[in-house]
């Protein structure tokens, strides 16, 4: 037993060293990627729940490290820890605005949503940065939507409120992402300058069998005159339930996986052709 314990110990430390090394490799890979701007954006469509009309896209970052695609769920937290998220976030914003402007000129207005991390929102220069990017690309502000997770906003509402107000004053729309997973005080929600609630995938996943949270979020949004987007819609039953319940927009693999900019543009051309 002693021996086995010893082996486990050796194995454990080796594992820790491997993990530390992997993390360091990821970090230096990220630094290089930031310097070389070697990220990509993919675009996942959102459609009206009733009728299916295209209403916009969410931009999602993609990164290949040493040829291997790394999930943003794995590298965004590292980017947050190291502060690299500030530069990555700026790149995402620039790229999304550049694309939205080009699409608007070539085809017609299609809003693009960008995910904003905790560090970005806490950056006192963030609202000014957004304003400058919009100006630089000649982007109509209503083509940009910012998705901020509920936990990030609610962790420090007082601190974030001035930034949110400044962003809203620019004319960009603000969505609360992953809504329902955190704790939102109703009183705060009423004061917040937000336009959209995105129902978290975990609650959409429960449909149609356990609809309580989804129903509550939709009712709340209607009460506060906010629009709703259901994320992670994967089945026709979910789509049907959401349309019946009065959810405004749908997003998920049932409608489309995230698309390359070219494939997204092809979808826009079809949408504007009719
Ligand atoms: P999120 O903002 O909640 O984005 C939705 C995630 O769900 C995306 O994963 C999307 O590809 C995935 N998804 C969409 N439809 C379905 C579906 O029907 N079923 C399932 N199972 N999944 C679906 P992705 O692209 O891997 O992004 C994961 C998270 O990483 C995002 O969650 C967001 O928090 C973060 N992220 C992605 N891009 C960016 C970015 O540019 N900046 C920042 N700060 N975060 C980002
Ligand atoms: Ca999002
Ligand atoms: Ca989400
Ligand atoms: Ca989510």
TrEMBL record:
Stretches assigned to the EAL domain: 23-272
Protein name, as recorded: Diguanylate cyclase
Portion held of the full protein: 417 to 690 of 698
Organism in which the protein naturally occurs: Azospirillum thiophilum
Phylogenetic classification of the source organism: Bacteria, Pseudomonadati, Pseudomonadota, Alphaproteobacteria, Rhodospirillales
């Amino acid at each position: 037993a002693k021996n086995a314990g010893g082996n486990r110990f050796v194995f454990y430390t080796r594992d820790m060293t491997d993990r530390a090394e992997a993390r360091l490799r990821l970090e230096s890979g990220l630094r290089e990627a930031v310097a070389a701007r070697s990220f990509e954006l993919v675009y996942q469509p959102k459609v009206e729940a009733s009728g299916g009309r295209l209403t916009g896209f969410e931009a999602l970052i993609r990164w290949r490290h040493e040829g291997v695609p790394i999930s943003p769920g794995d590298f965004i937290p590292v980017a947050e820890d190291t502060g690299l998220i500030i530069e990555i976030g700026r790149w995402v914003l620039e790229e999304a605005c550049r694309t939205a402007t080009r699409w608007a000129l070539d085809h017609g207005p299609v809003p693009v949503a960008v995910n904003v991390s905790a560090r970005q929102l806490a950056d006192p220069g963030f609202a000014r940065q957004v304003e400058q990017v919009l100006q630089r690309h000649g982007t109509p502000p209503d083509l940009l939507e910012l998705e901020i997770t509920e936990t990030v906003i609610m962790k420090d509402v007082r601190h974030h409120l001035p930034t949110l107000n400044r962003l809203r004053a620019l004319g960009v729309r603000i969505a609360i992402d992953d809504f329902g997973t955190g704790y939102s005080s109703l009183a705060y929600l009423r004061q917040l300058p937000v336009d959209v609630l995105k129902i978290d995938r975990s609650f959409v996943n429960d449909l149609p069998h356990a609809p309580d949270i989804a129903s509550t979020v939709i009712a709340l949004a209607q009460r506060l005159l906010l629009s709703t987007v259901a994320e992670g819609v994967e089945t026709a039953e979910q789509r049907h339930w959401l349309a019946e319940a009065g959810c405004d927009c749908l997003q998920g693999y049932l409608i489309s996986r995230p698309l390359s900019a070219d494939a997204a543009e092809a979808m826009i051309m079809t949408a504007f052709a009719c």
